[in-house]
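Loading example: each entry is read as two labelled lines plus one structure line.
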Amino acid sequence: MSLTQTHHVFAGVAQSGINTFLKALFTTRPHYLNYGSPSFVPANTVDATTMPAIPFPGVPGGIQYAVSFSIPVVDLFPPDAGTLSPIPPGNNQFGLHTTVTLVLGCMTWTGQPGNEKGGRMQPIICRLDVWALGEVVPHYFGPGTGFITLQVDDVRIPAIQPECLQNIVDCLIRMMLNGALANVQLPFHALSAGAFQLILEQGPQIDNDMVEVWGSI
Amino acid sequence: MPDIIAAADTTATTDLLHDAESTLGTLSKSGGGSLGPFVANYSASVSFSGGTVNLLPPNVIQIADININYSLGLSFGIDLNDFLPSFCLPQICFFGWCTPKICITWPTVTIPISFSDTATITGDFTVTALLSGADWLVDVTIDSVPLIQFGAGTAALLVAIGAAITAAVGWVPFIGPFLALLADAVLAVIGIAGVTGLLGDILTPFVSGLTFTVYNQPQLFPVLPNSGPNDPEVDVTITALGAVVQASDKNELVISASIAA
């Protein structure tokens, strides 16, 4: 069977290529993976994105925190042999593995009038293995113009108990991870290493450990 | 498995070829060559267009009927004495006063010609991926010097030469009665063979080693452009590139790349 099938051009990026793109993107722009409130990230830089503290009545300055992900590693369908993922990718899906580091600025203060109210902040750090499942979403703006993104549909963080806490953390990390991955916009021209300007007709499809698209030029 | 695979069928490869022809642009050359018994100086500009692709595994693109669009500026000198009869006006005397004897010596005249036409070639081109400086290329290079098909162009060039001779010698005194004779005589010694020979000499260097570049990307390949102080350009390095013609239910030009962050 030809690669182009019933179309005129085909472009496919292997799992290794997708992971190389992710490594290049997040190494060059690490602020897509690192977030923190002003106590941890005072200003936006190429390395990290500053976020407002979480306001809470009576907590001076709000709740300080930081969240960072390691560079995600993608596993395109079919799943890698020996994968440890509790949610391996199915047809037309990708699996994703990353580590999230959660940091809470744990504040202690007296709250008594006349006393020093600034208090002390002790960072509490927790690293969690994150397994995710998702799909590739095309954004097509016309002939030769567009990109694909990675959308996370499900997240599993093993070994969190009880189940209600696991659901909360899973959902929280899924939202954060989707936010971070929204910045992964892999343009069409990169899918063919610049060989041609793709007019998308079919795909993207995940199969044979590749993200595949078809079209004409 | 390579990191990236791009495949184009015959239709898409034809489009890539036509883009490559446009990118190659207009080529120029000047020199001298034989136009029958004359030595002609020329300046030539050539561009390529069209052609029908046939993909032949493992690494040949056969291209039929590529147009060679050429424009020539030619000039050559003619010693009119070689073609026209010499004669003298006899001395005539009237009542002791005589006119001088006048003998006509024909000049050497430069004939300028501008001519444009299209020829065609058909040939096999070999596909090669190579790193040239800081760029990865996929070149398709003609295997041998093909037969250049001139069509009606040669006859048209002969007509143009005849017209150019007529225009160039109009100033020569006493040439009126000999004009048609001169043009016919010069065209006879040049002939179709002379025109074809000169066109062949001029165009062959353009098609010898003819190379179209159907892929040209920097080794440091830009994935995302710079979009702000915290969002610098994102690049990957193309560490290896391959190009083959792959056979299946329809033949395809397949370009494969390995990349590194």
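Chain A is about 15% helix and 40% strand.
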